[in-house]
Amino acid sequence: MKVVALSGGVGGARLVEGLAAVVRPEDLTVIVNTGDDFVHWGLTVCPDLDTVMYTIAGLAHPEQGWGLAGETFHAYGMVERYGGEAWFRLGDRDLATHLVRTQALLAGRSLTEITADLCRALGVAPRILPMCDAPRPTRIDTPEGTLSFQNWLVRRRGQVAVERIWSAGSTAPAPGVLDAIHAADVVVIGPSNPYVSIDPILGLDGVRAALAERRVVAVSPIVAGKAVKGPLAEMIPQLAGRPPSAAAIADHYGRLLRGFVLERGDDAPEGVPVLHTGTVIAARADRERLAREVLAFADGRR
Amino acid sequence: MKVVALSGGVGGARLVEGLAAVVRPEDLTVIVNTGDDFVHWGLTVCPDLDTVMYTIAGLAHPEQGWGLAGETFHAYGMVERYGGEAWFRLGDRDLATHLVRTQALLAGRSLTEITADLCRALGVAPRILPMCDAPRPTRIDTPEGTLSFQNWLVRRRGQVAVERIWSAGSTAPAPGVLDAIHAADVVVIGPSNPYVSIDPILGLDGVRAALAERRVVAVSPIVAGKAVKGPLAEMIPQLAGRPPSAAAIADHYGRLLRGFVLERGDDAPEGVPVLHTGTVIAARADRERLAREVLAFADGRR
Predict the structure, then answer these.
(1) Are B276 and B299 in contact (CB under 8 A)?
(2) What is the torsion angle, in degrees rounded to the nearest 10, for the CA atoms of residue B108, residue B110, residue B116 and residue B117?
């Protein structure tokens, strides 16, 4: 079974780790949001790509959901001492990823090629594709003006009201993205933030049309009315005008879905087949178990 | 007494630390070689400027003569894992210096301004000037062709024969360099490699003419026929056609010198007043002692 997963950072990366354990590497393609990418300390940082890569490589920090296990912050401490930009921390080993990537971009290699190189070096076997090779930054309109995603989330700690979320820049999907979707038996939308992690992928040229012909299932990032991680629970009332719930996620994706996976006890949305199961996958074993259940469920939705 | 010091890396930096202990900060200007500067991992690295800055700040590694005390190499290890350029190691905290500098250069600040900012942040009070704001890379002609300095020294471990050493790029001294020399009561040429650390400074427009009117004294980097650090002892036979000695250094500078400081027991050069003293200054107390002796000697050479 050929599987495509659409993913943002933490939640999506954890499900992808489970998928990587149960799908043959040559049958798994992960299309990753690049809307959060930004330039920091002069380096191109791709938070979601790196979280997915580090997670599959077994290098991710087990709890915090970003960065590397056992990471140090010596360069950061010195940047702070110099009075440099200290609002976003980059770890020492993580820095190497951004240094190597930035140099390769300046040398003319594409983000798709670079991501493949980095993954190969870390022993990541499934294909990880950035959604775009060109910048496609997420913009957040607020009462204080339009902010970049990292400015809104990290510098302003997600405390500024969200009026609208949109994407700037290129609308061309990266090479391989549409082909992977066309070839997929199943497309899994990970338990990521639909507004800032999945919508940027869905908004690229041809992606929605390609997905319309596939068995697409989504896993809810909302459990018992709360987001497992990040600002999603606060965004839903502002953007959808309703309380946060798994059903609000399913309704957001609408007719795109052939199935929806949500936590036991959460209210099911209308109009789409559901699978109730345990969707909290902080533990490794749960990631693999959920991946198996999601694929079996999707396989029955043909 | 207004003092200007010309310096390369390790040896020069140690004497400069001594000078900084005995000269008022507003009376001390250090003009530092930038011929070794290069771009590594996409970052502008200035080895001699940083060695001088870290040494005065008390942050330098006490023995190895480059880098920071207690430095870690986590980013480097990860770059190596990615198959990146691993022939030159940059430490984690040292990386911050290059990141901040590279960003500031891209933002349009000059190397002189950036160096002043970095020094201020580290509490370095004397004025540290790069010899040039524009690149002035040292080139080494060898039987295998022309190599950049770091390629010759680090990548090739200084094992390739040296036929000629020259400087490419701009010949304009950085702002403040000529004024500092004109205002100096004493100019001290540190115990640095004359070919690759001092000659690049001397070759800049107007520097030799300005020095001709000053009391210039040099401290020998050769002690008992050996270089305290680096490839100097092997360079002298190749470039001057004689065995390495303190006298060979004095003869290299020739009529520029009003005085020459060398190790007790080393043969004095002809035609220049000398001070025999202890010139090995690995210990802090010796740096200050030598600085006092050099200034008193120079003051008597009026």
Answers:
(1) no
(2) 10
Interface test with A, best of B59, B68, B92, B115 (most A CBs within 10 A): B92
The pair of three-digit structure tokens given for residue A120, joined into one six-digit string: 């190969």
Bridge partners, residue A261, by sequence: A219, A275
Test mutation, B44, B80, B95, B119, chain A, max A CBs within 10 A: B95
Residue ranges in chain B modelled with pLDDT below 70: 302
Q: Which residue has the tokens 């390769």?
A: A104
Q: What is the largest CA-CA distance in chain B?
A: 58
Q: B79 vs A72: CB contact, 8 Å cut-off?
A: no
> How many angstroms separate the CA atoms of B149 and B37, rounded?
9
Six token digits for residue A46: 């791709």
Phi-psi region of B271 (alpha: psi -120 to 50; beta: other; left: phi over 0): left
| Among the partner residues A75, A83, A97, nearest to B95 by beta-carbon distance | A75
Q: Token pair of B152, please? A: 């010759």
Task: Report how far residue A191's alpha carbon sits from residue A17's, in angstroms, rounded to the nearest whole number.
Answer: 13
Level-2 CATH architecture, domain A3-37+111-116+123-137+169-299: 3-Layer(aba) Sandwich (3.40)
- Output the CATH code of domain B3-137+169-299: 3.40.50.10680
From the CA of A36, how many Å to the nearest CA of chain B? 21
| B residues 90-119 lying closer than 8 A (beta carbon) to A | 92-93, 95-97, 99-100, 102-103, 106, 117-118
Interface test with B, best of A43, A53, A78, A109 (most B CBs within 10 A): A78
Q: Is B81 helix (H, G, I), strand (E, B) or coil?
A: helix
Taking CA–CA distances from B40, the nearest residue in chain A reads A103
CB contact under 8 Å between B99 and A43, yes or no, is yes
Of B26, B20, B297, B21, residue with least CA distance to B186: B297
| pLDDT of chain A, 302 residues: tens digit per residue | 999 999 998 899 999 999 999 999 999 999 999 999 999 999 999 999 999 999 999 999 887 777 899 999 999 999 999 999 999 999 999 999 999 999 999 999 999 999 999 999 999 999 999 999 999 999 999 999 999 999 999 888 899 999 999 999 999 999 999 999 999 999 999 999 999 999 999 999 999 999 999 999 999 999 999 998 889 999 999 999 999 999 999 999 999 999 999 999 999 999 999 999 999 998 989 999 999 999 999 988 76
Q: What are residue B173's phi and psi, to 5 degrees? A: -65, 155
DSSP annotation of B282: -
Q: Where are the domains of chain B?
A: 3-137+169-299
Asked whether the beta carbons of residue B74 and residue A92 sit closer than 8 angstroms, the reply is: yes
Q: Which residues are CB-contacts of B40 (< 8 A; sequence separation ≥ 6)? A: B85, B88, B90, B98, B150
Could you tell me which of A48, A56, A50, A51 has the C-alpha nearest to residue A22?
A: A56
